[in-house]
Design goal:
single chain, alpha/beta, 6-stranded parallel β-sheet, 18 strands
Length: 360
C-alpha cells in the first residue's frame, strides 16, 4: 500500500489516498519515486483540456529507484536510478517508422489500462499519462523507464522527464536555434525556464523572456534571459524595439493561449519561426489572414514533448548538466510533499513560481 494523488473525476479536486499496487508482471518495472515535478499538463488533465481515463493517479515527470522488475526486463535492475518516460514510442506506427517518435500513435496506450486499485474500496485506477508519478511507488511498462545518466542527482533527474526535454527540444529540435540568433520565450514556468537555459546553451545572442508576472524577472535572468518584458497588448512592439525594429528570429510559446501564440508570431522578424509548446483548449482559436501569411513568410509549428527522443537526448542533457551549462535546480522554486500538489496547481493558475517538485 502506497500513498498517491488520485483524480476521481474531471473537474474534481485531487485526493491523497492509499492505493494497492500489484507486483510487476512480464515487461513491467516497479519504481520507488524520489521526486516528481508538478507540470501544467497535470493541471490540464484535471480540468479536461487533455483527457485520459479516470479515476487516475496523475504525475508524469519523475525519477526514482527500481524496486523490482518483471520477466523479460533486462535494461534496468533493482537498485538502478531511472527517469520516467511518459510517452514511450512503440517503434512500429507510421510516425515511429519516420523517426518521429514524439508523435507515436500508441504513446499513451498505457493510460487506458488499470494499473492499481484504491485501498479503501478496491476501485480501479488508471496511470494518468502512463506513469502515475504522484505516488510513493508506481508500476510501469519497461519502456517507460530510462537509466539516469551518470552525474545527475536522482531528485534533479525528475525534471528531465518533461520540462527539460520539452524546453531543450523546442530550441534544438523544433526551432533549431543557431548561434547568434535572437529568441523570445513566452511564459516563465518550469518549461519556460528550461527553454531559456537551452537558448543560452544554443548561443542565442539575445533572449527575451515574457511573462505577466514582474516577480519572475529574477528567475528568467538567472536562467540566461538578457531582457524581460511584462506581457501586454504592446508586447510584440516592445520586442521589435529590442531587436532593431526587426523582431526576434525565434519565439517559443510555453503558455497555450491564443492571444499569446498570436503575439509570439507577431514578435518574430519577417521569415521568423514560432514554436508552440503550450497546450491550449479547443476554445483557443488563432486566426491569420492570407495576405499576412504571404507577406511575413513566418513559420508557425507545434511541438510535442520537445520533438525529442528521450533515449538519445538524455545523455546529451546529462553532459550539459555535468559541464555546468544546465542547472536543473534553477527550475525549481518550491519543494513540496504529495499534500502540497493542490496548492501547486493553484500557483500555476495564478502564474506564480517555476517548477514545484514533490520530494518523497
Amino acid at each position: 500500500m502506497v500513498r498517491a494523488a488520485v483524480l476521481p473525476a474531471v473537474g474534481s479536486p485531487l485526493e491523497i489516498a492509499d492505493i494497492d499496487l500489484p507486483e510487476p508482471g512480464p515487461g513491467q518495472v516497479r519504481v520507488k519515486l524520489a521526486a516528481a515535478g508538478v507540470c501544467h499538463s497535470d493541471l490540464s488533465l484535471t480540468n479536461g483540456t487533455m483527457r485520459v481515463p479516470v479515476p487516475a493517479v496523475l504525475g508524469h515527470e519523475g525519477a526514482g529507484t527500481v524496486v523490482s522488475v518483471g520477466e523479460g526486463v533486462t535494461h534496468v535492475a533493482p537498485g538502478d536510478g531511472v527517469v520516467l518516460n511518459w510517452a514511450p514510442s512503440c517503434g512500429s506506427c507510421h510516425a515511429c517508422s519516420l523517426g518521429e517518435v514524439w508523435l507515436c500513435a500508441n504513446a499513451l496506450a498505457g493510460a487506458g489500462t488499470v494499473y492499481a486499485r484504491r485501498s479503501s474500496d478496491g476501485s480501479d485506477l488508471h496511470p494518468g499519462l502512463n506513469v502515475a508519478a504522484f505516488a510513493e511507488e508506481t508500476v510501469v511498462a519497461a519502456n517507460c523507464v530510462l537509466p539516469v545518466p551518470d552525474g545527475v542527482p536522482l531528485t534533479d533527474a525528475a525534471l528531465l522527464g518533461c520540462a527539460v526535454l520539452t524546453g531543450y527540444g523546442a530550441i534544438h529540435h523544433s526551432a533549431r536555434v543557431r548561434e547568434g540568433e535572437t529568441v523570445a520565450v513566452y511564459g516563465v514556468g518550469g518549461v519556460g525556464l528550461a527553454t531559456i537555459q537551452s537558448a543560452r546553451i544554443a548561443g542565442a545572442s539575445k533572449i527575451i523572456a515574457v511573462d505577466v508576472s514582474p516577480e519572475k524577472e529574477e528567475l528568467a535572468r538567472a536562467a540566461g534571459a538578457t531582457d524581460y518584458v511584462i506581457a501586454s497588448e504592446n508586447t510584440a512592439r516592445e520586442i521589435r524595439g529590442l531587436t532593431g525594429k526587426q523582431g526576434v528570429d525565434v519565439a517559443v510559446e510555453c503558455v497555450g493561449r491564443a492571444v499569446t501564440i498570436r503575439t509570439a508570431w507577431e514578435s518574430t522578424r519577417r521569415g521568423g519561426r514560432t514554436t508552440v509548446v503550450g497546450i491550449g483548449g479547443k476554445d483557443q482559436q488563432v486566426t491569420f489572414n492570407a495576405l499576412e501569411l504571404f507577406h511575413w513568410g513566418r513559420t508557425l509549428s507545434g511541438c510535442v514533448y520537445g520533438n525529442s527522443d528521450p533515449a538519445e537526448d538524455l545523455p546529451v542533457l546529462a553532459e550539459h548538466v555535468r559541464a555546468g551549462r544546465l542547472d536543473l535546480s534553477a527550475l525549481v522554486t518550491e519543494h513540496i510533499s504529495l499534500d502540497g500538489i493542490p496548492a501547486a496547481f493553484d500557483n500555476m493558475v495564478a502564474g506564480k513560481g517555476g517548477r514545484a517538485l514533490v520530494v518523497f
